[in-house]
Amino acid sequence: MRQMHLVGFLQAQNCTTLASSWRHPDSRTDFLTSDYFQEIARILEAGKFDLGFFDDRLSMPDRFGSDHHHTIEHGIRCVKLDPIVTLTMMGAVTSRLGLGSTASTTYYEPFHVARCFQTLDLMSGGRAAWNIVTSLNDGEAANMGHAEMMEHDRRYDRADEFVEVVLGHWDSWEDDALIIDKASGRFGDGDKVHRLDFKGRFLHSRGPFTVPRSPQGRPVLIQAGSSGRGKRFSARWAELVFVAYHDVASGRQDYAEFKAMVAAAGRDPEAVKVATLCYPICAATRAEAEDKAALIARLPLEIDALSLLSEALNFDFASKGMDEPFTDEEMAGIQGLQAIRDRVVRNTGKKNPTVRDFMVGSGRGKPPMDMVGGPKEVADRMEEWFATRACDGFVIGACVVPGSYADFVRHVVPELQRRGLFRKDYTGPTLRDHLGLARATRGDWQPRMAAE
Protein backbone atom coordinates (compact mmCIF):
# COMPACT_ATOMS: atom_id res chain seq x y z
CA MET A 1 0.00 0.00 0.00
CA ARG A 2 1.25 3.48 -0.89
CA GLN A 3 2.58 5.31 2.20
CA MET A 4 2.71 9.06 2.76
CA HIS A 5 5.94 10.88 3.61
CA LEU A 6 6.30 13.39 6.43
CA VAL A 7 8.88 16.16 6.65
CA GLY A 8 9.40 18.48 9.60
CA PHE A 9 9.76 22.06 8.27
CA LEU A 10 12.44 23.73 10.40
CA GLN A 11 14.44 26.95 10.61
CA ALA A 12 17.72 27.42 12.47
CA GLN A 13 16.45 30.74 13.75
CA ASN A 14 14.38 32.42 16.45
CA CYS A 15 11.03 31.47 14.89
CA THR A 16 9.51 29.22 12.27
CA THR A 17 8.61 30.58 8.84
CA LEU A 18 5.86 32.31 10.82
CA ALA A 19 7.55 35.29 12.46
CA SER A 20 4.83 35.28 15.11
CA SER A 21 5.68 31.81 16.40
CA TRP A 22 8.23 33.07 18.95
CA ARG A 23 5.51 35.24 20.53
CA HIS A 24 3.36 32.24 21.44
CA PRO A 25 3.36 31.73 25.22
CA ASP A 26 4.22 28.04 24.83
CA SER A 27 7.11 28.46 22.37
CA ARG A 28 10.58 27.81 23.75
CA THR A 29 12.91 30.81 23.54
CA ASP A 30 16.25 29.03 24.02
CA PHE A 31 16.77 28.74 20.27
CA LEU A 32 20.50 29.45 20.69
CA THR A 33 21.03 26.09 22.38
CA SER A 34 21.48 22.60 20.99
CA ASP A 35 18.81 21.25 23.35
CA TYR A 36 16.13 23.31 21.57
CA PHE A 37 16.78 21.61 18.25
CA GLN A 38 17.54 18.22 19.75
CA GLU A 39 14.09 18.13 21.38
CA ILE A 40 12.51 18.76 17.97
CA ALA A 41 14.64 15.98 16.47
CA ARG A 42 13.56 13.50 19.14
CA ILE A 43 9.89 14.37 18.61
CA LEU A 44 10.12 13.95 14.82
CA GLU A 45 11.93 10.63 15.13
CA ALA A 46 9.36 9.38 17.64
CA GLY A 47 6.76 10.21 14.99
CA LYS A 48 8.73 8.25 12.34
CA PHE A 49 9.14 11.35 10.13
CA ASP A 50 11.24 10.86 7.01
CA LEU A 51 13.35 13.89 7.82
CA GLY A 52 13.69 17.24 9.49
CA PHE A 53 14.51 19.92 6.95
CA PHE A 54 16.03 23.38 7.40
CA ASP A 55 14.94 26.21 5.16
CA ASP A 56 17.61 28.94 5.03
CA ARG A 57 18.37 32.44 3.76
CA LEU A 58 21.71 34.22 3.79
CA SER A 59 20.33 37.48 5.16
CA MET A 60 17.76 38.70 7.64
CA PRO A 61 14.67 40.43 6.19
CA ASP A 62 15.81 44.04 5.76
CA ARG A 63 14.33 44.96 2.38
CA PHE A 64 11.34 46.78 3.97
CA GLY A 65 12.46 50.38 4.39
CA SER A 66 16.01 49.24 3.52
CA ASP A 67 16.68 48.77 7.23
CA HIS A 68 16.95 45.91 9.70
CA HIS A 69 15.71 47.80 12.79
CA HIS A 70 12.12 46.54 12.50
CA THR A 71 13.37 43.00 11.93
CA ILE A 72 15.25 42.97 15.22
CA GLU A 73 12.53 44.78 17.17
CA HIS A 74 9.81 42.34 16.12
CA GLY A 75 11.90 39.16 15.84
CA ILE A 76 11.14 38.65 12.16
CA ARG A 77 13.50 35.77 11.30
CA CYS A 78 16.44 37.90 12.42
CA VAL A 79 18.52 35.10 13.99
CA LYS A 80 19.87 32.67 11.41
CA LEU A 81 22.25 29.98 12.58
CA ASP A 82 24.21 27.69 10.29
CA PRO A 83 21.83 24.82 9.50
CA ILE A 84 24.50 22.18 8.81
CA VAL A 85 26.10 22.66 12.21
CA THR A 86 22.64 22.58 13.80
CA LEU A 87 21.80 19.34 11.98
CA THR A 88 24.90 17.63 13.35
CA MET A 89 23.61 18.31 16.85
CA MET A 90 20.24 16.82 15.90
CA GLY A 91 21.89 13.83 14.27
CA ALA A 92 23.80 13.10 17.46
CA VAL A 93 20.59 12.33 19.40
CA THR A 94 18.77 10.39 16.66
CA SER A 95 19.55 7.28 14.64
CA ARG A 96 16.93 7.23 11.86
CA LEU A 97 15.60 10.74 11.25
CA GLY A 98 16.73 12.18 7.91
CA LEU A 99 18.69 15.44 8.08
CA GLY A 100 18.05 17.96 5.29
CA SER A 101 19.36 21.47 4.74
CA THR A 102 19.34 24.25 2.20
CA ALA A 103 22.57 25.39 0.56
CA SER A 104 22.65 28.03 -2.17
CA THR A 105 24.01 27.34 -5.64
CA THR A 106 24.23 31.09 -6.22
CA TYR A 107 26.78 31.97 -3.54
CA TYR A 108 28.48 28.75 -2.41
CA GLU A 109 31.04 26.69 -4.29
CA PRO A 110 30.12 23.16 -5.40
CA PHE A 111 33.19 21.47 -3.89
CA HIS A 112 32.31 22.98 -0.50
CA VAL A 113 28.66 21.89 -0.71
CA ALA A 114 29.65 18.41 -1.86
CA ARG A 115 32.07 17.99 1.03
CA CYS A 116 29.67 19.33 3.71
CA PHE A 117 26.76 17.12 2.74
CA GLN A 118 28.74 13.96 2.00
CA THR A 119 30.46 14.35 5.39
CA LEU A 120 27.06 14.79 7.07
CA ASP A 121 25.85 11.69 5.22
CA LEU A 122 28.77 9.65 6.55
CA MET A 123 28.54 11.00 10.10
CA SER A 124 24.80 10.28 10.24
CA GLY A 125 24.94 6.82 8.67
CA GLY A 126 23.29 7.84 5.37
CA ARG A 127 20.62 10.32 6.46
CA ALA A 128 21.60 13.57 4.69
CA ALA A 129 19.71 15.58 2.07
CA TRP A 130 20.64 18.77 0.22
CA ASN A 131 17.93 21.28 -0.68
CA ILE A 132 19.12 22.98 -3.87
CA VAL A 133 18.16 26.67 -3.97
CA THR A 134 18.96 29.69 -6.10
CA SER A 135 19.06 32.64 -3.70
CA LEU A 136 16.42 35.23 -4.37
CA ASN A 137 17.07 38.71 -2.94
CA ASP A 138 19.50 41.60 -2.88
CA GLY A 139 20.18 41.24 0.85
CA GLU A 140 21.73 37.83 0.26
CA ALA A 141 23.75 39.20 -2.65
CA ALA A 142 25.08 42.05 -0.51
CA ASN A 143 26.09 39.71 2.32
CA MET A 144 27.90 37.40 -0.08
CA GLY A 145 29.87 40.17 -1.78
CA HIS A 146 27.76 40.81 -4.88
CA ALA A 147 26.30 44.12 -6.04
CA GLU A 148 22.92 42.66 -6.98
CA MET A 149 20.99 39.45 -7.41
CA MET A 150 21.64 37.37 -10.53
CA GLU A 151 18.76 37.21 -13.03
CA HIS A 152 16.27 34.39 -12.36
CA ASP A 153 16.81 32.01 -15.29
CA ARG A 154 20.56 32.61 -15.27
CA ARG A 155 20.62 31.49 -11.62
CA TYR A 156 19.02 28.20 -12.68
CA ASP A 157 21.44 27.79 -15.59
CA ARG A 158 24.29 28.11 -13.09
CA ALA A 159 22.50 25.74 -10.71
CA ASP A 160 22.36 23.04 -13.42
CA GLU A 161 26.15 23.16 -13.69
CA PHE A 162 26.49 23.33 -9.92
CA VAL A 163 24.52 20.12 -9.40
CA GLU A 164 26.48 18.39 -12.12
CA VAL A 165 29.72 19.30 -10.36
CA VAL A 166 28.45 18.15 -6.96
CA LEU A 167 27.20 14.84 -8.33
CA GLY A 168 30.46 14.39 -10.20
CA HIS A 169 32.44 14.82 -7.00
CA TRP A 170 30.14 12.45 -5.10
CA ASP A 171 30.88 9.86 -7.82
CA SER A 172 34.66 10.34 -7.55
CA TRP A 173 35.18 7.47 -5.13
CA GLU A 174 34.16 3.97 -6.12
CA ASP A 175 32.44 1.98 -3.39
CA ASP A 176 35.44 -0.27 -2.77
CA ALA A 177 38.18 2.35 -3.15
CA LEU A 178 39.23 2.09 0.51
CA ILE A 179 41.47 -0.85 1.49
CA ILE A 180 42.96 0.20 4.87
CA ASP A 181 45.32 -2.75 5.16
CA LYS A 182 47.92 -2.02 7.83
CA ALA A 183 49.88 -5.16 7.08
CA SER A 184 50.53 -4.22 3.47
CA GLY A 185 50.53 -0.48 4.14
CA ARG A 186 47.98 0.04 1.39
CA PHE A 187 45.28 2.57 2.34
CA GLY A 188 43.27 2.69 -0.88
CA ASP A 189 43.15 1.85 -4.57
CA GLY A 190 44.34 4.90 -6.48
CA ASP A 191 42.69 3.65 -9.65
CA LYS A 192 39.28 3.84 -7.96
CA VAL A 193 39.38 7.52 -7.04
CA HIS A 194 38.82 9.80 -10.02
CA ARG A 195 39.41 13.47 -10.79
CA LEU A 196 36.47 15.46 -12.10
CA ASP A 197 38.20 18.12 -14.25
CA PHE A 198 34.91 19.95 -14.88
CA LYS A 199 34.97 23.04 -17.08
CA GLY A 200 31.63 24.65 -17.77
CA ARG A 201 30.13 27.98 -18.69
CA PHE A 202 29.90 29.15 -15.08
CA LEU A 203 32.02 26.77 -13.02
CA HIS A 204 35.36 24.97 -13.01
CA SER A 205 36.29 22.26 -10.50
CA ARG A 206 39.23 19.89 -10.68
CA GLY A 207 39.19 17.36 -7.83
CA PRO A 208 39.93 14.70 -6.77
CA PHE A 209 37.19 14.85 -4.15
CA THR A 210 38.21 14.17 -0.57
CA VAL A 211 35.22 12.30 0.94
CA PRO A 212 34.46 8.61 0.19
CA ARG A 213 30.98 7.33 -0.66
CA SER A 214 28.36 6.97 2.05
CA PRO A 215 25.91 4.21 3.10
CA GLN A 216 23.14 5.58 0.85
CA GLY A 217 25.57 6.29 -2.00
CA ARG A 218 25.08 10.05 -1.83
CA PRO A 219 22.73 12.54 -0.14
CA VAL A 220 19.14 12.89 -1.35
CA LEU A 221 18.45 15.91 -3.59
CA ILE A 222 15.57 18.22 -2.61
CA GLN A 223 14.15 21.14 -4.60
CA ALA A 224 11.27 23.58 -4.30
CA GLY A 225 11.24 25.63 -7.49
CA SER A 226 7.78 27.01 -8.29
CA SER A 227 8.43 28.93 -11.53
CA GLY A 228 8.36 27.21 -14.90
CA ARG A 229 12.15 27.15 -14.97
CA GLY A 230 12.24 25.94 -11.37
CA LYS A 231 9.86 23.07 -12.09
CA ARG A 232 11.96 21.96 -15.06
CA PHE A 233 15.00 22.01 -12.79
CA SER A 234 13.16 19.90 -10.19
CA ALA A 235 11.98 17.43 -12.83
CA ARG A 236 15.57 16.97 -13.92
CA TRP A 237 17.36 16.66 -10.59
CA ALA A 238 15.15 16.38 -7.50
CA GLU A 239 14.25 13.21 -5.60
CA LEU A 240 12.04 15.03 -3.10
CA VAL A 241 10.12 18.15 -4.10
CA PHE A 242 8.53 20.67 -1.75
CA VAL A 243 5.44 22.54 -2.97
CA ALA A 244 2.76 24.78 -1.44
CA TYR A 245 -0.46 23.72 -3.14
CA HIS A 246 -3.47 25.72 -1.94
CA ASP A 247 -6.38 23.37 -2.53
CA VAL A 248 -6.91 19.76 -3.51
CA ALA A 249 -8.25 20.42 -7.01
CA SER A 250 -5.39 22.66 -8.16
CA GLY A 251 -2.95 20.46 -6.26
CA ARG A 252 -4.06 17.39 -8.21
CA GLN A 253 -3.63 19.27 -11.48
CA ASP A 254 -0.18 20.67 -10.60
CA TYR A 255 0.93 17.30 -9.22
CA ALA A 256 -0.09 15.48 -12.41
CA GLU A 257 1.57 18.10 -14.61
CA PHE A 258 4.80 17.92 -12.63
CA LYS A 259 4.90 14.12 -12.67
CA ALA A 260 4.48 14.30 -16.45
CA MET A 261 7.48 16.64 -16.57
CA VAL A 262 9.49 14.08 -14.59
CA ALA A 263 8.52 11.35 -17.07
CA ALA A 264 9.41 13.63 -19.99
CA ALA A 265 12.85 14.06 -18.44
CA GLY A 266 13.30 10.28 -18.71
CA ARG A 267 12.83 9.56 -15.01
CA ASP A 268 10.40 7.40 -13.03
CA PRO A 269 7.70 9.74 -11.62
CA GLU A 270 7.12 7.40 -8.66
CA ALA A 271 10.77 7.88 -7.64
CA VAL A 272 10.28 11.64 -7.23
CA LYS A 273 8.26 12.41 -4.11
CA VAL A 274 6.13 15.57 -3.88
CA ALA A 275 5.33 16.95 -0.42
CA THR A 276 3.05 19.94 0.10
CA LEU A 277 3.35 22.44 2.94
CA CYS A 278 0.72 22.54 5.68
CA TYR A 279 0.35 23.96 9.18
CA PRO A 280 -1.87 21.54 11.11
CA ILE A 281 -3.25 22.83 14.40
CA CYS A 282 -4.36 19.73 16.25
CA ALA A 283 -5.39 18.51 19.67
CA ALA A 284 -7.31 15.67 21.28
CA THR A 285 -10.61 17.25 20.16
CA ARG A 286 -11.73 19.67 17.50
CA ALA A 287 -12.93 22.18 20.13
CA GLU A 288 -9.53 22.20 21.81
CA ALA A 289 -7.78 22.65 18.46
CA GLU A 290 -10.05 25.58 17.58
CA ASP A 291 -9.14 27.25 20.88
CA LYS A 292 -5.47 26.82 20.02
CA ALA A 293 -6.07 28.27 16.55
CA ALA A 294 -7.83 31.33 17.98
CA LEU A 295 -4.76 32.19 20.04
CA ILE A 296 -2.37 31.59 17.14
CA ALA A 297 -4.48 33.83 14.87
CA ARG A 298 -3.97 36.78 17.25
CA LEU A 299 -0.17 36.65 17.15
CA PRO A 300 0.82 37.93 13.64
CA LEU A 301 1.46 41.66 13.14
CA GLU A 302 1.04 43.77 10.02
CA ILE A 303 4.78 44.43 9.98
CA ASP A 304 5.41 40.66 9.71
CA ALA A 305 3.60 40.52 6.38
CA LEU A 306 5.15 43.72 5.02
CA SER A 307 8.68 42.66 5.93
CA LEU A 308 8.34 39.09 4.63
CA LEU A 309 6.69 40.24 1.41
CA SER A 310 9.53 42.69 0.82
CA GLU A 311 12.08 39.91 1.38
CA ALA A 312 10.34 37.29 -0.74
CA LEU A 313 9.51 39.58 -3.68
CA ASN A 314 12.74 41.61 -3.47
CA PHE A 315 10.70 44.85 -3.47
CA ASP A 316 10.50 47.51 -0.76
CA PHE A 317 6.85 47.59 0.30
CA ALA A 318 7.60 50.68 2.42
CA SER A 319 8.01 52.63 -0.83
CA LYS A 320 4.26 52.53 -1.55
CA GLY A 321 1.10 53.52 0.28
CA MET A 322 -1.09 50.74 1.64
CA ASP A 323 -3.79 51.33 -0.97
CA GLU A 324 -1.54 52.34 -3.87
CA PRO A 325 -1.69 49.91 -6.82
CA PHE A 326 1.48 48.41 -8.23
CA THR A 327 2.27 49.57 -11.75
CA ASP A 328 2.63 47.16 -14.67
CA GLU A 329 6.36 47.84 -14.64
CA GLU A 330 6.65 47.06 -10.92
CA MET A 331 4.67 43.83 -11.31
CA ALA A 332 6.83 42.71 -14.22
CA GLY A 333 10.02 43.61 -12.34
CA ILE A 334 9.40 41.35 -9.34
CA GLN A 335 12.29 38.89 -9.35
CA GLY A 336 11.78 37.09 -6.05
CA LEU A 337 9.18 34.40 -5.42
CA GLN A 338 7.03 35.06 -8.46
CA ALA A 339 4.53 32.41 -7.34
CA ILE A 340 3.48 34.77 -4.51
CA ARG A 341 2.89 37.58 -6.99
CA ASP A 342 0.84 35.31 -9.25
CA ARG A 343 -1.19 34.00 -6.31
CA VAL A 344 -2.06 37.53 -5.19
CA VAL A 345 -3.27 38.42 -8.70
CA ARG A 346 -5.33 35.24 -8.82
CA ASN A 347 -6.78 35.58 -5.32
CA THR A 348 -7.66 39.28 -5.59
CA GLY A 349 -8.67 39.28 -9.25
CA LYS A 350 -6.57 42.44 -9.70
CA LYS A 351 -3.86 42.79 -12.31
CA ASN A 352 -2.45 45.72 -10.32
CA PRO A 353 -2.99 44.90 -6.64
CA THR A 354 -2.23 47.31 -3.80
CA VAL A 355 0.09 46.72 -0.87
CA ARG A 356 -2.94 45.80 1.22
CA ASP A 357 -4.05 43.37 -1.50
CA PHE A 358 -0.64 41.73 -1.34
CA MET A 359 -0.95 41.30 2.40
CA VAL A 360 -4.43 39.77 2.19
CA GLY A 361 -4.00 37.82 -1.05
CA SER A 362 -0.67 36.25 -0.13
CA GLY A 363 -1.42 35.36 3.49
CA ARG A 364 2.25 36.11 4.16
CA GLY A 365 3.16 35.87 7.81
CA LYS A 366 -0.03 34.05 8.80
CA PRO A 367 -0.81 30.34 9.12
CA PRO A 368 -3.45 29.23 6.59
CA MET A 369 -5.81 27.82 9.27
CA ASP A 370 -7.18 25.22 6.83
CA MET A 371 -6.16 22.15 8.84
CA VAL A 372 -7.55 22.63 12.35
CA GLY A 373 -9.11 19.80 14.33
CA GLY A 374 -8.80 16.61 16.31
CA PRO A 375 -7.06 13.49 14.99
CA LYS A 376 -9.95 12.49 12.73
CA GLU A 377 -10.48 15.92 11.13
CA VAL A 378 -6.79 16.49 10.38
CA ALA A 379 -6.23 12.91 9.17
CA ASP A 380 -9.32 13.19 6.93
CA ARG A 381 -7.86 16.26 5.25
CA MET A 382 -4.47 14.66 4.78
CA GLU A 383 -5.98 11.44 3.46
CA GLU A 384 -8.02 13.40 0.91
CA TRP A 385 -4.90 15.11 -0.41
CA PHE A 386 -2.86 11.91 -0.45
CA ALA A 387 -5.45 9.44 -1.74
CA THR A 388 -6.56 11.66 -4.62
CA ARG A 389 -2.95 12.13 -5.79
CA ALA A 390 -2.56 15.78 -4.90
CA CYS A 391 0.72 14.92 -3.14
CA ASP A 392 2.93 12.09 -1.89
CA GLY A 393 3.28 13.57 1.57
CA PHE A 394 3.42 16.70 3.69
CA VAL A 395 5.91 19.27 4.92
CA ILE A 396 4.68 19.98 8.43
CA GLY A 397 5.13 23.60 9.51
CA ALA A 398 4.81 24.75 13.12
CA CYS A 399 2.96 27.63 14.76
CA VAL A 400 4.41 26.77 18.19
CA VAL A 401 7.85 25.24 18.86
CA PRO A 402 8.10 22.44 19.75
CA GLY A 403 4.40 22.10 20.63
CA SER A 404 3.06 21.93 17.06
CA TYR A 405 5.32 18.97 16.24
CA ALA A 406 4.53 17.23 19.53
CA ASP A 407 0.76 17.69 19.05
CA PHE A 408 0.94 16.27 15.53
CA VAL A 409 2.96 13.24 16.63
CA ARG A 410 0.74 12.63 19.65
CA HIS A 411 -2.65 13.04 17.98
CA VAL A 412 -2.44 12.68 14.19
CA VAL A 413 0.37 10.20 13.50
CA PRO A 414 -1.39 7.33 15.36
CA GLU A 415 -4.56 7.99 13.34
CA LEU A 416 -2.64 7.94 10.06
CA GLN A 417 -0.97 4.69 11.15
CA ARG A 418 -4.33 3.18 12.12
CA ARG A 419 -5.59 3.92 8.60
CA GLY A 420 -2.54 2.28 7.02
CA LEU A 421 -1.42 5.55 5.46
CA PHE A 422 1.84 5.96 7.35
CA ARG A 423 4.56 3.65 8.64
CA LYS A 424 4.56 2.33 12.19
CA ASP A 425 8.33 2.02 12.17
CA TYR A 426 11.30 2.80 9.98
CA THR A 427 12.07 0.11 7.42
CA GLY A 428 15.78 0.87 7.16
CA PRO A 429 18.56 3.09 8.45
CA THR A 430 18.97 5.57 5.56
CA LEU A 431 16.88 8.41 4.26
CA ARG A 432 16.62 6.65 0.91
CA ASP A 433 15.08 3.72 2.76
CA HIS A 434 12.47 6.04 4.29
CA LEU A 435 11.62 7.52 0.88
CA GLY A 436 11.48 4.15 -0.85
CA LEU A 437 14.44 5.04 -3.07
CA ALA A 438 17.17 2.64 -4.14
CA ARG A 439 20.72 3.22 -2.99
CA ALA A 440 22.37 5.69 -5.35
CA THR A 441 24.96 4.18 -7.70
CA ARG A 442 27.79 5.93 -9.48
CA GLY A 443 26.66 7.56 -12.69
CA ASP A 444 22.96 6.78 -12.26
CA TRP A 445 22.19 10.48 -12.77
CA GLN A 446 24.05 10.77 -16.07
CA PRO A 447 20.97 10.18 -18.30
CA ARG A 448 19.45 13.37 -16.83
CA MET A 449 22.10 15.41 -18.63
CA ALA A 450 20.04 15.10 -21.79
CA ALA A 451 17.07 16.85 -20.11
CA GLU A 452 16.56 20.53 -20.85
From TrEMBL:
<dbReference type="InterPro" id="IPR051260">
    <property type="entry name" value="Diverse_substr_monoxygenases"/>
</dbReference>
<feature type="binding site">
    <location>
        <position position="226"/>
    </location>
    <ligand>
        <name>FMN</name>
    </ligand>
</feature>
<dbReference type="InterPro" id="IPR016215">
    <property type="entry name" value="NTA_MOA"/>
</dbReference>
<feature type="binding site">
    <location>
        <position position="227"/>
    </location>
    <ligand>
        <name>FMN</name>
    </ligand>
</feature>
<feature type="binding site">
    <location>
        <position position="152"/>
    </location>
    <ligand>
        <name>FMN</name>
    </ligand>
</feature>
<dbReference type="GO" id="GO:0004497">
    <property type="term" value="F:monooxygenase activity"/>
</dbReference>
<dbReference type="GO" id="GO:0016705">
    <property type="term" value="F:oxidoreductase activity, acting on paired donors, with incorporation or reduction of molecular oxygen"/>
</dbReference>
<feature type="binding site">
    <location>
        <position position="156"/>
    </location>
    <ligand>
        <name>FMN</name>
    </ligand>
</feature>
<dbReference type="InterPro" id="IPR011251">
    <property type="entry name" value="Luciferase-like_dom"/>
</dbReference>
<feature type="binding site">
    <location>
        <position position="102"/>
    </location>
    <ligand>
        <name>FMN</name>
    </ligand>
</feature>
<feature type="binding site">
    <location>
        <position position="56"/>
    </location>
    <ligand>
        <name>FMN</name>
    </ligand>
</feature>
<keyword id="KW-0285">Flavoprotein</keyword>
<protein>
    <submittedName>
        <fullName>LLM class flavin-dependent oxidoreductase</fullName>
    </submittedName>
</protein>
<feature type="domain" description="Luciferase-like">
    <location>
        <begin position="33"/>
        <end position="387"/>
    </location>
</feature>
<dbReference type="Pfam" id="PF00296">
    <property type="entry name" value="Bac_luciferase"/>
</dbReference>
<keyword id="KW-0288">FMN</keyword>
<keyword id="KW-0560">Oxidoreductase</keyword>
<comment type="similarity">
    <text>Belongs to the NtaA/SnaA/DszA monooxygenase family.</text>
</comment>
<keyword id="KW-0503">Monooxygenase</keyword>
<dbReference type="InterPro" id="IPR036661">
    <property type="entry name" value="Luciferase-like_sf"/>
</dbReference>
